[in-house]
Design brief:
The chain is α+β, with helices and mostly antiparallel strands and 258 residues long. The protein has eight helices and eight strands; from the N terminus they run ααααβααββαβββαββ. It has two domains: 79 residues; 162 residues, Reverse transcriptase/Diguanylate cyclase domain (Alpha-Beta Plaits, 2-Layer Sandwich). The strands form two sheets. The chain has a six-stranded mixed beta sheet with strand order 2-3-1-6-7-8, sandwiched between helices. A two-stranded antiparallel ribbon has the order 4-5. α2 runs antiparallel to α3, α5 packs across α6 and α6 crosses α7.
Length: 258
């Protein structure tokens, strides 16, 4: 698949250089300030009080007007670097790293308060066919469209991520298995009923979804990712454009939902 160019990502090396340079200057400035204060203490009896005070004021002014703004810029660049490291450049969704970090936080909260937490694995059906027929530009447009559809359908508290290629994951806090299956079905229907316009043509896409409950135990996220991935491939094996939910539901309603 063609990689979409992201201008923010291209600025990352420059941001890193500025971060390192700014940190070095900040450390150097603090060292100069510390040395100046030490010299004032040692030579207090030699220098006149007014001269010592002027030197101290000059050092403090340098710290306030030079190093504090620089420190703020370093904080801004650090936040931007972290955002770029956890965001998929094509869809602007979380990437695998960002998803795993947020998932672990939600999992700890669910374990602490004994709340349900579910996970969906989503894969675009016959995505290679889209690339082969319409080109990688169309494939990128389809992925962006899927991301928008997922965000428009789910709650603000849910987390959507692109794990790689045409594979997505969704974390559903405060949602049991039955509720997650209904959410997955809404996603499936929205995608199946829509289309992507590309150069005067309508590209139809469907998705296969695996649904599972995240267990309230250590390693629950990794186990749920593996389980949901297997369920998703089962959905593909029975014809695609459907969901398969795990069978741990207390109501016994797990299974394929078309």
């Amino acid at each position: 698949m063609a990689v979409s160019v992201n201008r923010a990502a291209l600025r990352t090396p420059r941001a890193l250089k500025l971060l390192y340079a700014g940190t070095s200057l900040l450390i150097a400035g603090l060292a100069v300030l510390a040395c100046g204060l030490a010299m004032l203490r040692v030579q207090r009896q030699v220098w006149p009080f007014d001269c010592a005070a002027l030197i101290l004021i000059a050092l403090l002014a340098q710290f306030i007007f030079v190093f504090i703004p620089m420190f703020r810029r370093i904080g801004t660049y650090s936040g931007e670097i972290i955002r770029l490291a956890t965001t998929d450049p094509l869809t602007a969704l979380a990437n695998r790293r960002g998803f795993l970090e947020r998932s672990e936080i939600e999992h700890m909260r669910a374990r602490r308060f004994h709340r349900p937490l579910c996970l969906l694995m989503i894969d675009a059906d016959h995505f290679k066919r889209v690339n082969d027929t319409h080109g990688h530009e169309a494939g990128d447009l389809v992925l962006k469209s899927l991301a928008k559809s997922f965000l428009a359908t789910l709650r603000e508290t849910d987390m959507v991520a692109r794990l790689g290629g045409e594979e997505f994951a969704v974390l559903l806090p405060e949602t049991d298995l039955q509720g997650a299956a209904y959410a997955a079905e809404r996603l499936r229907l929205r995608v199946a009923q829509g289309s992507v316009k590309f150069r005067g043509k309508a590209i139809k896409v469907t998705v296969s979804i695996g649904v599972t409950l995240v267990k309230n135990e250590p390693g629950g996220i990794e186990e749920a990712l593996h389980a949901a991935d297997e369920l998703m491939y089962r959905a593909k094996s029975i014809g695609r454009n459907c969901i398969i939910a795990a069978e741990e539901d207390a109501r016994g309603s797990g299974g394929a939902l078309n």
